[in-house]
Amino acid sequence: MFPTARIGRMDRDTVRGRSDMERLLARLHGGEINLLVGTQMIAKGHDIHGVTLVGVVGADFQLGLPDFRAAERVFQLLTQVSGRAGRGDLIGKVLVQTYHPDHYAIQFAAKHDYPGFVAKEMQYRRWMHYPPYAVLANVVIQSEKLEEATGWAGTLGRWFQKARLDKVRVLGPAAAPIVRLKRIYRYHFVLKAERRQTLGETLRAMLAYAETQGIARRNLVVDVDAVHLM
């Protein structure tokens, strides 16, 4: 479709260090490249003048991830990448491919409405008890043996049920979204609490109990303020 385009790539395969990035941007600024294709790396704050068109393919795939910040990440990405177009004297245009055109993250990004997005996002965070209205922890049980991972997850699950935790909500156990990673089986819990101190006390008690049950510390990964619940 673009037989005369001078195409460049910006991704982890072509940019492995700062020198690679500088050479690529110099080629773009010098006009050696006039069509740049890449990953989210393109959106990260590069001041490139003369760009009049930006296209975003699959802009909303993150909305399907088990991440309470999914909408925030999509809004942030679209806002960043939109800023690449029209930075000079020429007017810019941004085209976005989305399967969820009515989603508030897409709508507010298209309008450059940051206050509107924040108001809507905070409303959902408050309803669902997500940060900043709560503190989260993700507890991952992992083992190279499936029976060990599931057995330990069940052991901790029964402890959480009997502990009758005050002001701590426990979700799980459940298979992690990526249940096997590098030959390691993974199951997890998500803990929600209003106060960090309460969550910390619960996690310390859980770790102490896990030790009595022969669950080694290397088989437990605890992520407080879990960004992505993997």
Description:
- There is one protein chain.
- The chain is of the alpha/beta class and 230 residues long.
- A 4-stranded antiparallel β-sheet has the order 6-7-5-8.
Question: What is the element layout, followed by pairings?
Answer:
Elements: E1 7-10, H1 18-29, E2 35-38, E3 53-56, H2 70-82, E4 93-96, H3 104-110, H4 114-128, E5 135-143, H5 146-163, E6 168-181, E7 184-193, H6 196-212, E8 220-224
Parallel strand pairs: 1-2, 3-4
Antiparallel strand pairs: 5-7, 5-8, 6-7
Describe this protein with a few key phrases.
4-stranded antiparallel sheet, two-stranded parallel ribbon, 6 helices, 23% strand
The H/E string reads EHEEHEHHEHEEHE
Backbone structural class: alpha/beta
Number of helices: 6
> Quick check: average pLDDT?
87
Question: What general outline do the C-alpha atoms trace?
Answer: elongated
Q: How are the strands of the biggest sheet laid out side by side?
A: 6-7-5-8
Point out poorly predicted stretches.
none
Proportion of residues in extended strands: 15-25%
- Largest beta sheet, briefly? 4 strands, antiparallel
Radius of gyration: 23 Å
| Helical percentage | 25-40%
Distance between the termini: 40 Å
User: How many DSSP E strands?
Assistant: 8
Brief rundown of the structure:
The chain contains six helices and eight strands, in the order E-H-E-E-H-E-H-H-E-H-E-E-H-E. It is α/β, with parallel strands linked by helices.
